[in-house]
Amino acid sequence: MLKGTIIKGIGGFYYVQTANGLIECRARGRFRNEGETPMVGDMVRIKQTAEDAEKGSLEEILPRKNAFIRPPVANIDQLVVTLSVKSPMPNLRLVDRLTVAAEAMGVTPVICINKVDLDMEAAQHIASIYKTTGYQVILSSRREDLGTEALKSVLKDKITALAGNSGVGKSSIINRLHKAFGLETGKVSEKTERGRHTTRHTELFELPFGGFVFDTPGFSAYAAEDIAKEVLAGLFPDIARHEGGCRFAGCAHVAEPSCSVKEALRQGKIAPERYESYVSLYQEAQATVKY
């Protein structure tokens, strides 16, 4: 059997990149019977048909490093969380939800601030918010061709997904990495400040300089019930490094006195925007009733 990677799935067909080229496959019925669904990014074993070497059957899904549900993708090394300084305006709360989702799955977050030519001062301010996280921050602009080489360095030999609001320029960024991709891009509505989704299915693109990048139709952040409030602080590296000096064991770093995290916040070691995101997500998780 051949080993390969699912790079696209449409209408029950899975397109697997192998050493013998791209093979169009149907999944065996046992996957459906066992409640297992192949995902883009899955490493698989397939069997080519005797009649047509470009067609085959998907026989086995190899163990996954990680898997996301919305969208269904697997084996991601890093998540490039993308936002724009304007058009649409940045949503830092969504950025923080996405970094938390990545941390929870053992995926490395990277922050990409796009369209910086529209307001470099705002871009620098956003970058300063994330400087204490330890995440790599890339400033990007299609008009000025800024950040392309930095992105290539980050993506090289990794499997990467881009995530963020529609309209922030994810497809444009992928097009800058390799002109042959030619992904459709859309404009942002001046009235709603929202972009139009141009990606209709999840696809994994092989990069000419090594590695793969996902283009997805919307990478959803985790829901509050997905992560227990007790572990949430550990998914904010800028907060986690200041834990341990609180007066009370099990301190939530929200309302308790003598809290080392709140002291670090007062000293400017944690960005207020990041702390506010943590508190909001903690309260959301706390309000979730589990049965």
What's the arrangement of secondary structure elements?
Layout: E1 2-10, E2 13-18, E3 21-27, H1 29-33, E4 43-48, E5 55-61, E6 67-68, E7 73-74, E8 78-84, H2 92-104, E9 108-114, H3 120-129, E10 136-139, H4 148-155, E11 159-163, H5 170-177, E12 203-206, E13 212-215, H6 229-232, H7 237-240, H8 260-266, H9 272-287
Parallel strand pairs: 3-5, 8-9, 8-11, 9-10, 11-13
Antiparallel strand pairs: 1-2, 1-4, 2-3, 4-5, 6-7, 12-13
Helix pairs in contact: 2-9
What would your notes on this structure say?
This protein has 291 residues and is an alpha/beta fold. It has nine helices and 13 strands. The protein has helices at 29-33, 92-104, 120-129, 148-155, 170-177, 229-232, 237-240, 260-266, 272-287, and strands at residues 2-10, 13-18, 21-27, 43-48, 55-61, 67-68, 73-74, 78-84, 108-114, 136-139, 159-163, 203-206, 212-215. The strands form three sheets. It has a six-stranded mixed sheet with strand order 10-9-8-11-13-12, with helices on both faces. A five-stranded mixed barrel has the order 1-2-3-5-4. Helix 3 links the parallel strand 9 and strand 10.
Multimeric status of the protein: single chain
- Number of distinct helices: 9
Structural class: alpha/beta
Helicity level = 25-40%
Averaged pLDDT: 89
Give me the strand/helix succession: EEEHEEEEEHEHEHEHEEHHHH
Strand content: 15-25%
Total strand segments:
13
Largest beta sheet, briefly?
Answer: 6 strands, mixed
- Rg on CA atoms, Å: 21 Å
Which spans of ≥5 residues are poorly predicted at pLDDT below 50? 188-199
Termini gap:
44 Å
Instruction: Please state how the strands of the largest beta sheet are arranged side by side.
Output: 10-9-8-11-13-12
Overall geometric form? globular
